[in-house]
């Protein structure tokens, strides 16, 4: 499912116009992004938690060669699945 299909599904389930559903989906994604940029987490009980993690600088080996490259330290987004979602998917 891509973003347009997701917006259509939200519009149908919530009884909204596609324009209103697009605005709602975009607002949710923007809010999650802004919160992660502040190194805070977003938690939806039962669904999961969006958070960030720091990755240290390291030296990595390029597959198929003996060459190594230095990888800079960075911050990455993480998602930890919640119990209800995990159980729903596992069925």
UniProtKB/TrEMBL annotation:
GO molecular function: DNA binding; structural constituent of chromatin
Pfam families noted in UniProt: Bac_DNA_binding (PF00216)
PANTHER family associated with the record: DNA-BINDING PROTEIN HU, DNA-BINDING PROTEIN HU-BETA
Origin superkingdom: Bacteria
Similarity comment: Belongs to the bacterial histone-like protein family.
Listed name of the protein: Histone family protein DNA-binding protein
Biological processes, Gene Ontology terms: chromosome condensation
Entry keywords, A to Z: DNA condensation, DNA-binding
Record-linked InterPro entries: Hist_DNA-bd (IPR000119), IHF-like_DNA-bd_dom_sf (IPR010992)
